[in-house]
């Protein structure tokens, strides 16, 4: 019986690690999209305040 418990604990640990890895990957992609969107917004804002040449 203790071997069964140990096996279940190991499965829970592996599942937790896989969930954490998936959450990290999702968060990384969301941050990339957010940074890209903010960069576009900042570029548009900078375009409105572009100094006149000449």
Q: Can you give a write-up of this model?
A:
This protein has one helix spanning 2-48. The chain has a domain at 22-48. It is rod-shaped, with a radius of gyration of 24 Å. The longest helix is centred in the middle third of the chain and has 47 residues, at 2-48. By secondary structure, it is an all-alpha fold.
Strand tally, please?
A: 0
For the record, give the distance between the C-alpha atoms at the N and C termini, rounded to a whole number.
Answer: 84 Å
The parts where pLDDT drops under 50 for at least 5 residues are none
- Average pLDDT works out at 85
Strand content: under 5%
Looking at this protein, list some descriptive labels.
rod-shaped, 54 residues, mainly alpha, single chain, 87% helix
Task: Annotate the secondary structure layout.
Elements: H1 2-48
Could you provide a short overview of the structure?
This protein is mainly α and 54 residues long. The chain has 1 helix and no strands. The chain has a domain at 22-48.
